[in-house]
């Protein structure tokens, strides 16, 4: 059974309310009867495979696309009818940087702030703190071409804060970054969450979703299939222990049968076998008789849940 909640039309505190939206492109239904909401101070993560409907949903939430049916309220404003007023009060970081290459970091923040009609003095007063937040004070006068990928993403995040937004919409903000840069972005996002910022985050990094999000919305084929806190969903959906076994050659059927009897569930991906179990001790004891195998015992995580509910086969975006 799916644990899917719906957005309540009576909930006046929610900053974003998505109520039973659907959207099709020709014969392809991208979003189907999707509902969710974001409360003040909450980080909601939207996860799902390629083609699940995340990007279409985000466009609808930004007022850039009109749903075929359903209703969206952003900060109490109907979308897309009041999209301009809504976007003036939020911050957005897309998948790809849209920084102006002709300007310095400081000039990018100043120019972007002017789009919101903010007085120059107000913008200039905010720039030092935003550059400090992005760990870019030393790059204030640097051109965009002089920045690394991680620096550009941090500047994009700082730019999204120039208007002191009530809500942030972040579309895969750490895609393409190395681990060090990704962790620094996570640290900065964690700071915003502690400050009480509300965030809608789409991501393909399960560690990112598990680390940052108060609640998760897992969508597949345009529909919500699970929602809840990361820890509750993992406990609800996946056995607590995972034992990964890697072998250079296929295991004999009798060995695989003997090992599988100690697990509730077994999956294979390439040369790796995944044993999901309530108690790993009998399985680990049995594996001691096969010292040539590489064995990793770990707790279940969000990636296990994701793969269980959406499959291990690669999806190509339409």
Q: What does this protein look like?
A:
This protein is of the alpha/beta class. It has two domains: 16-229, Rossmann fold (3-Layer(aba) Sandwich), CATH 3.40.50; 239-299, 2-Layer Sandwich (Alpha-Beta Plaits), CATH 3.30.70. It contains eleven helices and 14 strands. It has helices at residues 54-61, 83-87, 105-115, 120-133, 149-160, 179-194, 206-212, 230-237, 253-260, 281-287, 302-310; strands at 16-25, 28-38, 43-47, 69-74, 77-79, 90-93, 167-171, 198-202, 215-220, 223-228, 241-246, 265-269, 272-277, 294-299. The strands form three sheets. A six-stranded mixed beta sheet has the order 6-7-8-3-9-10, sandwiched between helices. α3 (105-115) crosses α4 (120-133) and α8 packs across α11 (302-310). The longest helix is centred in the middle third of the chain and has 16 residues, at 179-194. The protein is globular. The two termini are 28 Å apart. The model is unreliable at 1-10 (pLDDT under 50).
**Overall geometric form:** globular
Helix-and-strand structural type: alpha/beta
* Uncertain stretches: 1-10
Order of helices and strands: EEEHEEHEHHHEHEHEEHEHEEHEH
Helix content: 25-40%
Between the first and last Cα atoms, what is the distance in angstroms? 28 Å
- At the fourth level of CATH, the homologous superfamily of the largest domain is P-loop containing nucleotide triphosphate hydrolases
Q: Judging by the overall fold, what is the CATH architecture of the largest domain?
A: 3-Layer(aba) Sandwich
- Number of beta-strand segments: 14
Average the pLDDT over all residues and give the rounded result: 92
Q: Indicate how many domains the architecture comprises.
A: 2
The strand order across the widest sheet is 6-7-8-3-9-10
Tell me the CATH topology of the largest domain: Rossmann fold
């Amino acid at each position: 059974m799916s644990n899917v909640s719906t957005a309540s039309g009576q909930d006046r505190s929610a900053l974003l309310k998505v109520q039973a939206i659907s959207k099709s492109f020709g014969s392809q239904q991208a979003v189907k009867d999707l509902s969710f909401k974001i409360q003040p101070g909450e980080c909601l993560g939207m996860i799902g495979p390629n083609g699940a409907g995340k990007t279409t949903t985000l466009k609808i939430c930004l007022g850039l696309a009109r749903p075929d049916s359903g209703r969206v309220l952003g900060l109490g404003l109907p979308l897309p009818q009041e999209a301009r007023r809504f976007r003036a009060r939020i911050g957005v970081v897309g998948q790809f940087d849209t920084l102006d290459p002709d300007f310095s970091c400081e000039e990018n923040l100043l120019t972007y702030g002017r789009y919101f009609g903010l007085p120059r003095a107000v913008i200039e007063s905010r720039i030092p703190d935003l550059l400090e937040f992005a760990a870019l004070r030393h790059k204030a006068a640097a051109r965009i071409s002089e920045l690394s990928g991680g620096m550009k993403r941090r500047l994009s995040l700082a730019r999204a804060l120039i208007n002191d937004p009530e809500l942030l919409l972040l579309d895969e903000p750490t895609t393409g970054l190395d681990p060090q840069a990704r962790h620094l972005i996570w640290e900065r996002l964690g700071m915003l969450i502690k400050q009480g910022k509300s965030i809608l985050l789409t991501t393909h990094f399960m560690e990112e979703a598990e680390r940052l999000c108060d609640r998760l919305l897992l969508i597949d084929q345009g529909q919500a299939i699970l929602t809840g806190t990361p820890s509750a969903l993992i406990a609800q959906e996946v056995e607590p222990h995972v034992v990964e076994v890697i072998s250079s050659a296929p295991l004999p059927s009798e060995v695989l049968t003997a090992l599988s009897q100690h697990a509730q569930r077994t999956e294979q991906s390439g040369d790796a076998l995944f044993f999901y179990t309530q108690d790993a001790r009998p399985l680990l004891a049995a594996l001691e008789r096969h010292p040539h195998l590489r064995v990793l015992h770990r707790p279940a995580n969000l990636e296990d849940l994701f793969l269980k509910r959406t499959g291990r086969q690669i999806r190509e975006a339409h």
